[in-house]
Task: inverse folding
């Protein structure tokens, strides 16, 4: 049992205040999850339009699935914190006109995703920052590998 | 109060110096290793090894300057580094180059855990470049460059 003075020093909870929002690290994590999910969606849309690319693109897609699983595994939201649900994926754009254009589009999306991860480092805890930097490096290698692919040969 | 603030600053500075020294050590090992690898390579692979060797040499100079700026002495390169396997063929040379880059990626990832935002960003950008070199030597990509399995 704490003396009353100690309880007062801790600051009594304001019962009328709205529940606290998510911490910066939780917001960062949720932004990364949304970004990874939209990359996975982009791969799936392109694979639906160009099934012949499956063998070429599968390694990248399965690495994104691993990224997503790691990020989601770190997302623990305390029950009293109110968060809005993650945005649902944006309406699917029509697929690019050729397999070559589809690969170029994925390469651009990987590069943009890697750059966006770097923008989230400052708000992350050291351990989350390392995960995000590692995912960004993986995405940078995907962009490099995609630019070397020749869909005609596949 | 002021003394405690300075103590915290020193602790932050020494964590940065330790992490920078690890990166310098990995870069020095890469400079030596690319010399070994280059001797077994020809054509485009030789040129790639030569280019990467130059990148690592320049990185050593830059890191040494960063460590000196922070008031510490940059660690000296070893006279020789023992490769993890004999490098007597082009195949072994390519595997060594990929392994050296993996080591460099891991070292830069150490900078990303620091509180210093500039070093965090620097480490993240440099590890991307090293991960790209590792993937192009290896011919395949990985999901979590630089992260040990124990961190996942």
Result:
């Amino acid at each position: 049992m704490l003396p009353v003075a100690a309880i007062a020093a801790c600051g009594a909870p304001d019962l009328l205040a709205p529940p606290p929002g998510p911490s910066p690290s939780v917001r960062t994590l949720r932004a990364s999850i949304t970004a990874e999910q939209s990359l996975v969606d982009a791969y799936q849309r392109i694979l639906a339009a160009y099934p012949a690319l499956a063998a070429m693109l599968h390694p990248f897609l399965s690495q994104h699935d691993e990224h997503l699983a790691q990020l989601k595994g770190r997302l623990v939201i305390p029950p009293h914190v109110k968060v809005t649900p993650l945005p649902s994926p944006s309406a699917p754009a029509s697929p690019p006109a050729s397999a070559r254009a589809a690969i170029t589009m994925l390469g651009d999306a990987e590069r943009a995703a890697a750059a966006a991860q770097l923008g989230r480092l400052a708000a992350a805890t050291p351990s989350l920052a390392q995960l995000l930097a590692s995912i960004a490096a993986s995405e940078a290698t995907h962009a490099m590998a995609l630019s070397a692919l020749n869909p005609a040969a596949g | 109060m002021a003394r405690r603030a300075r103590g915290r600053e020193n602790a932050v500075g020494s964590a940065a110096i330790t992490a920078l020294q690890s990166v310098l050590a990995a870069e020095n090992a890469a400079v030596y290793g690319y010399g070994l690898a280059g001797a077994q390579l020809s054509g485009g692979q030789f040129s790639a090894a030569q280019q990467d060797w130059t990148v690592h040499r320049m990185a050593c100079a830059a890191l040494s300057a960063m460590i000196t700026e922070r008031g510490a002495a940059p660690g000296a390169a070893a006279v020789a580094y023992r490769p993890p396997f004999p490098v007597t063929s082009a195949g072994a040379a390519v595997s060594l180059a990929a392994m050296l880059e993996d080591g460099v990626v891991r070292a830069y990832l150490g900078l990303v855990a620091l509180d210093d935002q500039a070093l965090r960003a620097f480490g993240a950008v440099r590890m991307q470049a090293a991960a790209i070199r590792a993937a192009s030597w290896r011919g395949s990509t990985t999901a979590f460059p630089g992260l040990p399995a124990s961190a996942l």
Remarks:
- The domain at 22-73+93-147 of chain A is CATH 1.20.1260 (Ferritin).
